[in-house]
């Protein structure tokens, strides 16, 4: 079973909170609030997405690299993670 399935309720709760933050950001831009307030909302969204990303990376590392006995599967799990991190850091 995939770790995204195992942790689905917790992950969905985080995604829904992020959606709420993005919707608040949209409303803020539509209502012409000050740029400092918009920037604060953007920082909040970014922090929430970064937190979700860190949690997913941790779960992937644990379940697809550290807790895997087969060296080929472990290597594949590590390569998958490196690919995602490279994309994330662009």
TrEMBL record:
Membrane spanning stretches: none
Q: Per its UniProt entry, which superkingdom is the organism in?
A: Bacteria
User: What Pfam families does the database record attribute to this sequence?
Assistant: Trns_repr_metal (PF02583)
Identify a single GO molecular function assigned to this protein. metal ion binding
Q: Which Gene3D superfamilies match?
A: Metal-sensitive repressor, helix protomer
Entries under InterPro entries matching the protein: Metal_Tscrpt_repr, Metal_Tscrpt_repr_sf
Which CDD domains does the record match to this protein? Answer: RcnR-FrmR-like_DUF156 (cd10153)
Q: Name one GO biological process term.
A: negative regulation of DNA-templated transcription
The entry's family comment says:
Belongs to the FrmR/RcnR family.
* Protein's recorded name: Transcriptional regulator
Species in which this protein is naturally found: Prosthecodimorpha hirschii
């Amino acid at each position: 079973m995939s770790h995204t399935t195992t942790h689905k309720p917790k992950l969905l709760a985080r995604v829904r909170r992020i959606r709420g933050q993005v919707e608040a950001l949209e409303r803020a831009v539509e209502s012409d609030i000050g740029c400092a307030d918009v920037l604060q909302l953007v920082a909040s969204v970014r922090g929430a997405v970064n937190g979700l990303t860190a949690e997913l990376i941790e779960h992937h590392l644990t379940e697809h690299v550290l807790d895997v006995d087969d060296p080929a599967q472990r290597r594949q799990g590590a390569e998958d993670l490196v690919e995602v991190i490279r994309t994330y850091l662009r």
